[in-house]
Amino acid sequence: MRRIDLRSDTFTLPSKEMLDSIPSADLGDDVEAEDPTVNQLQDLAASMFGTEAALLVASGTMGNLVSLMAHCRRGDEVILESEAHIYYYELGGMSAIVGAMPYLVKGQRGKFTAEQLEAAIRHPDLHYPNTRLVCIENTHNRGGGIVWTPREVEAVAKVAHDHGLKVHCDGARIFNAAVALDVDVKEYMRHLDSLSFCLSKGLACPVGSVVVGNREFIEEVRRNRKMVGGGMRQAGIIAAPGIIGLQKMVGRLKEDHSNARRLAEGLNEIPGIKVDMEAVQTNIVLADITGTGWDVDYFVNRACKIGVQVFEFGATKARFVTHYGIDEQDVDDALARLRRLLER
Ligand SMILES: Cc1ncc(COP(=O)(O)O)c(C=O)c1O
């Protein structure tokens, strides 16, 4: 029985072309900025986002961390949504390492409005920390792959900039957002001061993320990357698949999105499972399984036994993610297996 792994797009395996690109990659010492393949990847990323510069880092977590280190001083306050990945899943690095304090805004499916931001920004006062940075997440992971529109980003960024704050985007899945709305990533970037995106999720690369921003910011990020031990030497072996990811894997994300819709519609036909279709905007499906009468742990275990791997998501939901390596047939097979399981 083929295992159908719908846990996350981080489980994607690299394409053969990516693996084949590694042995022939031109290499050098990237700490000295002398790896030609890394430089090529960074130039490509900067040109796609319309920024002056870009920097390869080891992971999405590191991309956010070194960006926050560049934006903030110890004791500064960072405004972000209450379920932001940076707050929820990055081990408190923003406080432990950056020394910054989170100010959480309760959004709707991971997004907050310009008005909410306006209300959250502190005015100068002897008793208050300095508000320094606003972080958004696009697509929003815990929101269920929710997309910010460029207009929404523009509105929030305008408020931030009017108050002298910088705006960082955790764009781990920014290409999912851009593909879902059929917009260029530059449409987002022109409102932002920095963005970190992952090569190793929907783009199916084995390792890596890239931070984009202006030259001065990226130089600061380069220093921070070295400080946290992320200076890599012949990193062209990571960058070579990254280039293929950017050139060849972005367009196909729409297949993941249509597979997610197909999956969500099918799940809605299974008694006991409910998916809010409005929230299915990219490659993530949050399914409420309360109606099955099972608890989520049990559901996830039973699904695993029939070869359908999903993650639990809170007390009532299971999370399904479509990605490179999951095709329409896998979606149909997963649905058929779950239907049989729940009919029993
Ligand atoms: C929105 C978001 N940001 C950041 C990350 C962190 O990426 P990494 O696992 O490469 O550290 C993830 C990973 O799932 C994510 O979903």
Distinct ligands: pyridoxal-5'-phosphate
CATH class of the largest domain: Alpha Beta
Provide a count of the helices: 14
Structural class: alpha/beta
The low-pLDDT segments are none
The coarse silhouette is: globular
Number of domains: 2
Order of helices and strands: EHHEHEHHEHEHEHHEEHHHEEHEEEH
Percent range of helical residues: 40-55%
Strand order of the largest sheet: 2-8-7-6-5-3-4
CATH-wise, what's the superfamily of the largest domain? Type I PLP-dependent aspartate aminotransferase-like (Major domain)
Characterize the biggest β-sheet.
7 strands, mixed
CATH structural fold name of the largest domain: Aspartate Aminotransferase, domain 2
Mean pLDDT: 97
**Termini separation:** 19 Å
Number of strands: 13
Topology:
Blueprint: E1 4-5, H1 16-21, H2 36-49, E2 53-57, H3 60-71, E3 77-81, H4 85-88, H5 93-96, E4 101-105, H6 114-120, E5 131-137, H7 150-162, E6 166-170, H8 174-181, H9 185-189, E7 194-198, E8 209-213, H10 215-227, H11 236-248, H12 253-268, E9 274-275, E10 284-288, H13 296-305, E11 308-309, E12 311-313, E13 317-321, H14 328-343
Parallel strand pairs: 1-11, 3-4, 3-5, 5-6, 6-7
Antiparallel strand pairs: 2-8, 7-8, 9-10, 10-13, 12-13
Helix pairs in contact: 2-11, 3-10, 6-7, 12-14
Bound molecules: pyridoxal-5'-phosphate (PLP).
